[in-house]
Amino acid sequence: MEFDDILLSRIGTGVTILCAIGSIVGWWHSRRAATEAQTAVQQIHHQRHVRLAGTVQTSLNSAIKLLRTVGPGCNAEKIVGITMEPIIDETEQFLEQFQTTFSGSALAEKINVPVDVFTAEIRTHISALSDAITPGEKLRESRIIYTKLSSLQPEICRVADDFTYNPKGD
């Protein structure tokens, strides 16, 4: 009888040890899976930021391209035949994307521009441009908008390049 008790005790101890080893192996596998999931989430966020920064950069380039027609190279005679609506629409689309992307998000800390102040200032000039009657007023406001957006371009390019050429997303 005593031999049976010792045998059962040893079998129970062995099973307990095997269960402990199994739980350690399971813990190790779940830890590795959690780390991989966390890395995947970081990569998804990084790819999203790459896409958003690229979209804003493309939109800014389109707005600047349209604004060049009424920018520093334009004069009062040339501006008479230019329709302002497409320029204003493209600039507004850029401002919406810029504000949505950089205002109050994780990307806000990447750009050295007060986003809400900048967009409010540009919108004031857009409003003045759409209300302008004389070619001189249109020329002045369009040049201001062109200059301000052009000054933003290096900053947007830097942010887009940081995300594009930083595969780890640091």
Automatic annotation (TrEMBL):
<feature type="transmembrane region" description="Helical">
    <location>
        <begin position="6"/>
        <end position="28"/>
    </location>
</feature>
<keyword id="KW-0614">Plasmid</keyword>
<keyword id="KW-0812">Transmembrane</keyword>
<keyword id="KW-0472">Membrane</keyword>
<keyword id="KW-1133">Transmembrane helix</keyword>
<protein>
    <submittedName>
        <fullName>Uncharacterized protein</fullName>
    </submittedName>
</protein>
